[in-house]
Amino acid sequence: MRFYRSKIESAAARRLEDRIRREGPLRYDVFLNEALYGPDGYYTRGAAIGKEGDFVTAPHVTPLFGYTLAHHIATIWEQMGCPAPFFICELGAGEGYLAQDILQTLQERAAACWEALEQYVLFERSPVLRAREQTRLEGFAQKVSWTLPHGVEAAVVLSNELFDALPVRIFTQEGGGLREIGITAEAGDLTETLLPLPMDEMPAAVAEVASELQEGWRFEWAPDVSALYTHISEIAKKLAVLTIDYGDLRQARLHHDPQGTLVGYSGQRQVENPLWRAGEIDLSSRVDFSQLIECGQVCGLRFWGPYKMGVYLLALGIDTYLTPADPTRLFDNMALRRNGQVWQLVYTMGQYFQVLLQYRGFDLDDPLAEPSDR
Question: What is the pTM of this model?
């Protein structure tokens, strides 16, 4: 079995080395929490997001993404019975681009929902990214907050590329037995190692796929998802949870990516070795949407999806933003750019990103259903 290793060069890697010397080998989720959210972590230092950064998210491609989501949020609010006050909570809000686009659209095109909106609440662990959000959203100061509500009447909780950044544990079959992959330090390197896995500590999702894991395959499981769903479920009585991320249902994810999905991103390029320059690159793994559904069901959430993001956006009408070809304006750069952006959302990102809708306390229509089927 191949093990990743990398020289200890970054501040976060040195901090991890010190911790390993004190505590012994670390589980992968502990490593990832330090590399992403620790004092010298990637997000703590301020992630480089956007076309000039390490990776691009849908709101950086075009504001049409946020415009389209805003119209669906307004529809969800109507199906809740038009409650007032009403909250929108965005988890992992990054630099605030999506919040800006949604707020602008509601203000300009959904007046009733805008008036009912008590607060758009942004939750972001990185202090650097929170500061960027506050600057970007100065024009909406009366509508934005950074404190999550608890027990309110109605809320939509949304996230775009949040769950892929949660720390994961990694499991494998080795020598005919299930083992956990961890991180140790030796000879100036961080390196993967095998950890024992007592049967009474095996997560249920891992036990479910254990018989299918072949020698050398890797399976990732995010231990923080259950607690996060508990917190989400306490936000509101009437609750809709809109999750957009890349991943798949458990079985499809396992067989599509048997070697594991945890990778790094640096300068718009994928980094295969997740130990390389810890704290200085983004790290993420494909989301197990089965886990999100299961945790939601424990909290009383029904669900629609997951759908491919491209199918979802088309169902919401993003294609109405396309500009028809005009033979007299073949080189209309604005129209070409907009059409290209919609194409990227629907037919590039939209083919591997998924959308999951979960809800409780009201009846939510399937956005992909024909009007006569609702």
Answer: 0.95
